[in-house]
Amino acid sequence: MPGTTQPQHGETRANLRGTNFAAKGVFRFSVVYFLCALVLNMLVSPFVDQFPGGFLVATVLMTLVFLSALLAIGGRRRTMAGVVLVAPALVGEWLSFWQPDLPFSVMIRASGVLFIGYVVLEFLRFIVRAPRVDFGVLCAGIATYLMLGLLWSFAYILVDRLVPNSFVFTVGPVSSHSMNNFNALYFSFTTLSTVGYGDIIPVSGVARMLAMVEAVFGMFYVTLLIARLVSLYSVNAPLEAVNGEEIANNKRIGPENSQTSSKHLEK
């Protein structure tokens, strides 16, 4: 009909791409770098306690995770809020490296919990508002799951410091019966994935509550994430099919015939 303008599919795709790209971080592959830092931290954590400089390596890896998370959340306001939250966490990590028996180690872990929780919320917001499924959304979904495990590992260490003997170790040497960085990370992911081997048992009320909430949260996160990705794909797949069919028709008709047909339609 004359007087009405239809949005072009190319413009729609460009707008979607621009909206999606703006939320991926400061740099183009910030989310990918952040995911790589998380995976590297998980793979190296079991071995850092077996050599003299292990604690330094663990501190460097955690610093890398925090800084890459700060770059991955993107946006000027979000980055500034992240700087405010990550600064005490980073200072605390390096202070605990130089002086492991700091009296305010509880505050250090609490600041880390706050920053990781902020990053998780920002990534969840990005996944929920993403207009289409792409590589950045998939990486953000995996990184959020890994950050949830890291978040609860900090919380378990915090509970172990505040309430001694909150966890009971049933296997392994006595020297390893402490909720250190790797044990907390291991217990967190076994609880998040609802595996629960039984080698580490929460016994205090706060520890059991955290384990219960983490198991429920991990189960619902995977379910809702898959539902969200499927819904995004099912919404965008028909649009892409229509766009592909229109491009194929234009190639068969040719530019001159397509202009002629469009004039007939206008009449």
Description:
The protein has helices spanning 9-22, 30-44, 54-73, 76-98, 105-129, 135-162, 181-192, 205-253, 255-266, and strands at 167-169, 200-202. The chain is mainly alpha-helical and 267 residues long. Helix 5 runs antiparallel to helix 6. The radius of gyration is 24 Å and the shape is globular. The longest helix is centred in the C-terminal third of the chain and has 49 residues, at 205-253. A two-stranded antiparallel sheet has the order 1-2.
Q: What is the H/E order?
A: HHHHHHEHEHH
Structural class: mainly alpha
User: What are the low-pLDDT stretches, counting only 5+ consecutive residues below 50?
Assistant: 1-23, 254-267
What percent of residues are in strands? under 5%
The whole-number mean of residue pLDDT values reads 77
**How is the biggest beta sheet arranged?**
2 strands, antiparallel
Reading side by side through the largest sheet, how are the strands ordered?
1-2
Q: Which term fits the overall shape? A: globular
**Straight-line N-to-C gap:** 9 Å
Q: Into which percent range does the helicity of residues fall?
A: over 70%
> How many distinct beta strands?
2
List the helices and strands and how they pair.
Blueprint lengths: L8 H14 L7 H15 L9 H20 L2 H23 L6 H25 L5 H28 L4 E3 L11 H12 L7 E3 L2 H49 L1 H12 L1
Antiparallel strand pairs: 1-2
Helix pairs in contact: 2-3, 2-6, 3-4, 3-5, 4-5, 5-6, 6-7, 6-8
